[in-house]
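Work package 3, deliverable 3.1, input record:
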Amino acid sequence: MTATLKWRTWLLYLGVAAVVAYCLAPFYWMLVSSLRRTSDIFDTSLLPAPVSFENYRAVFSPSQGFGRALLNSLIVAGTTTVLALLLATFTAYAMARLEFRFKRLILTLIIATSMFPVVSILVPLLKLFTDIGWINTYQAMIVPSMSFVLPLAVWNLTTFFRQMPDELEQAAMIDGCTRGQAFRKIIIPLAAPGIFTTAIIIFIAAWNEFLIALSMTNRPSIQTAPVAISKFAGASQFDTPFGSQMAAGVLVTIPLVIMVLLFQRRIVAGLTAGAAK
Amino acid sequence: MATRTPPETAADRPPGPASGRAGRPPAPEKARRGRKSATAGTGRMAALLVSPTLLVLTVVVLYPTIMALRESLYGTKGLDPKTGFISDTEPFVGLQNYTDIFGEAGERFWNAFWNTTFFTVVTVGLETVIGVAMALIMHKAFSGRALIRASILIPWAVPTAISGLLWRWIFNSDGIANALIGHQILWTTEGFHAKVAVIIAEVWKTAPFIGLLVLAGLQVIPREVYEAARMDGASPLRQFWHITLPLVKPALLVAVLFRCLDALRMFDLPYLLVGAQKSSVETLSMLAQNEASNVRFGPAAAYAVALFVYVLLIALGFVRLLGADVVGDAGGPGRKKRRWASKRNRVEVPA
């Protein structure tokens, strides 16, 4: 009996190790490759022999314009997140707390929107933005991103608002608050963790966006980081600068990894909010 | 794009006492006097709160969709074959962009269509198997939960574009993949191995996500069910087939639906891992984007509309399969609500 139990525990540890290795191995490879010298970039040892920051220096050389790309990404993803949160908080509150006609229909439509293939809204928007001179602007990337982050935010926040006890607000209203005041003074502070979780998830989604950012820009100075990295130029036409691509990839991913490590519990709660019931 | 949360709870939660005001039946006599004005006020407030979101979605989703439908009826600028004049505007061609799909020019479309379908079926199938296995391991693991939770989120957090480049590096001719298998395969060139490379990269990124959602489903299964099964002498395998799987099925199906819809619009990964205009990995999204970037807006819009219809059909198929569980408005909840209300009335009448 104890022998099988021990055997099982070992098997479980093995399984855990396998899951962790599965998830982290490619990411680890990106990290290791980014720390190699250009001369031994094709080395396949598990540790970079002399650790070198050559690739990181190359990424930040002025010719690549990577710093600017990071800033662009931050502006686009940040603005998208703030706008989506602002609109979605109001909508989600109405969805969770108020009773009105067509509520289910509206919620269904909003959620259905997020199933949309982005490319099908891209063509007309590309044409429209060309006509009004929005190509190579931040708003040309922010506005289309709303199509997938807004439904996500409304959905997530609705779930969070529903989890809050209704009595608190009613007590506040009995004490003389209007509904608006109750919302501002009671609900918003209480929902702060939920809003924060939603913000992280939206920010990651917006930060990772590629198709819109690729199509709406053709000037390097306005490109977001993923697009800029994909266009890194090597020494010759047939030479892909894998070293600096990996270094830049690490730099783009690190903020997200830090967020994931800090707020893993909340992110998991946000991601699985709808699935578990 | 793997971040979407399935729309089950909020949309489908049958309104009941536990879900707050939503399902409360009209209060009897006492409250009825003030109700009319309260409802009007609530309605106005709801309209005020909901309209900004609806306005934005109209501008970024509804308007482009209608325009895409219109656009798909127009041809490309250039030489008009009938008149021989060069036109500055796009000629109206009716359904020609669509009928072209079924003609000789449709070869590229059908290739992209089958690639998209193939990727969706294979990746979602593999992801489901690996994801469920991961969820089972995580569910059993007591130590190192935080470590697993953190590592399982990493593939999800790495931007797809970056993971495309990362896998391009791994699958490079002198890369680690070839070093590991001790065999030179030119993964990122045209051919079946390019498909395999895309599938491996996609499954790496998204299987943990399915694992996460299934784990959430596993955690709500009461422990007693398993204890009872163990007492009846059910083997672990039987327990899995007859208890675990049926009970996580709703969570799993929602996860699979969302993964399917995501896989159908796959773009970044094949675009960066293998490249644009590579017929062995070109998906419908890549095809439409490529046409649009070559200013052939009409065909691009037609392909995008075709993809949209495809996604819609798959989504509807799932909704039928799942009943009203996925999308809350399919009629089921309404019936439940009425049933609940009438039950409530029945209780109240004798009282």
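Chain A touches chain B through 108 residues (CB under 8 Å).
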